[in-house]
Amino acid sequence: MKKDRGFATKSIHTGQEPDPLTGAVTVPIYATSTYVQEEIGKHKGYEYARVSNPTRTRLEQNLAALEGGSSSHVFASGMAAINAMCTMLKAGDHLICSHNVYGGVPRLFDQILSNYGLEFTYVDTSEIGAVDRAIKRNTKIAYVETPTNPLMTLSDIAAISRICRRRGVELVVDNTFLSPYFQQPIRLGADMVIHSTTKFLNGHSDGLGGVVVCTKAEQAEKLAFIQKSAGAILSPFECWLVLRGVKTLSVRMQQHDRNGRAVAAFLNKHKKVKKVYYPGLPDHPQHQLAKQQMTGFGSMITFETGSLKNANKMLRKLRVCTLGESLGGVETLISHPATMTHAALGEKGRKAIGITDGMVRISVGIEDVEDLFEDLDQGLAAI
């Protein structure tokens, strides 16, 4: 039996084989909208760029291999990927969602998709029983984000998958925060995995995209049809950016993790920080689960400054950390969930899940960690 290649090897080589026409080591950007056909019904596997593109094919092969899926389908953004997943449903179907997810998800579900007859229920998926109790006769999907954004709460993927299989529900996991390097939801029983490729997969803050990784032929067939029909596809150039980024995913994630652990420990001891949310800390309530289902703790950290005023004082002083939305880049990105990623939830919605105005979320980059300590320390000194 052929031995499965290691993660780093797959990142660099699967779907990234040299171009057969020229021998180019890097996958070419096929910037074409259409393809020549020799005669009616006879072509080389490609007809029109909305349907398929060779650069896109290579990326989809690569991401499916990294997540251990049978196929993957890339879209113009992470939200477009989530929307495509929901488009597989029909009016009257019910979806269970983690109650603490990226704010754009409930905005899509409640303000757009609910208008088309889809039903949504939000539960604390860290409580296994809550998932089981929320399943109804018309429930088709349980959508879990773990760790959650921004509270870094974990859900037990394997336990939830067992419930879903018993109840005939598909489990979809957003794996953006950890990447397939640190967490493999399909191996733990998930039916589909979603990423914003904008984040760690791309890794350089220069490309927008999303992916749905499948495990079943019927899922792949539906998603390919959605790509063709709705057209929210990833461009050849954006596909190339992710292919380039994924080649260094293994080494980047190792450094992200080293820096993340160090910064979390630094913040946890800092007298101006009231609380740190990071699964790698021994006092995190799900630290044992983190060690069980993750191979690293990653670089996403949320910490409490005490108030909006304090958060703003600190953020204005930072010089190495970059204040802005998004995450997963080589540079350290820092954001304010209440006014950025979760503003759409409103004050009442944020309070219900525990997001305060004093919370700051940091995506620790791969800079020299001592420079991050110094920058955070002088920022916190403003409080």
Structure report:
The chain is of the alpha/beta class. It is 38% helix and 14% strand. The protein has 14 helices and twelve strands. The protein has helices spanning 7-13, 54-67, 78-87, 104-111, 128-134, 157-167, 179-182, 217-230, 236-246, 249-269, 287-293, 308-317, 346-353, 369-380, and strands at residues 71-75, 94-98, 119-123, 139-145, 170-174, 192-196, 210-214, 275-277, 300-304, 322-323, 333-335, 359-363. The strands form two sheets. A seven-stranded mixed β-sheet has the order 1-7-6-5-4-2-3, sandwiched between helices. A five-stranded mixed β-sheet has the order 8-9-12-11-10. The termini are far apart. The mean pLDDT is 96.
Present the secondary structure layout.
Layout: H1 7-13, H2 54-67, E1 71-75, H3 78-87, E2 94-98, H4 104-111, E3 119-123, H5 128-134, E4 139-145, H6 157-167, E5 170-174, H7 179-182, E6 192-196, E7 210-214, H8 217-230, H9 236-246, H10 249-269, E8 275-277, H11 287-293, E9 300-304, H12 308-317, E10 322-323, E11 333-335, H13 346-353, E12 359-363, H14 369-380
Parallel strand pairs: 2-3, 2-4, 4-5, 5-6, 10-11
Antiparallel strand pairs: 1-7, 6-7, 8-9, 9-12, 11-12
Helix pairs in contact: 1-2, 2-9, 12-14
As residue ranges, the low-confidence spans are none
Instruction: Indicate the mean pLDDT.
Output: 96
Give the helix/strand class.
Answer: alpha/beta
H/E order of the elements?
Answer: HHEHEHEHEHEHEEHHHEHEHEEHEH
Name of the CATH homologous superfamily of the largest domain: Type I PLP-dependent aspartate aminotransferase-like (Major domain)
N/C terminus separation: 60 Å
The side-by-side strand order for the widest beta sheet comes to: 1-7-6-5-4-2-3
- Amount of beta strand: 5-15%
Please report the total strand number as a whole number.
12
According to CATH, what is the topology of the largest domain?
Aspartate Aminotransferase, domain 2
Helix content: 25-40%
Can you count the helices? 14
The Cα radius of gyration reads 21 Å
**How many separate domains make up the residues?**
2
CATH-level-2 architecture of the largest domain: 3-Layer(aba) Sandwich
Overall geometry comes to globular
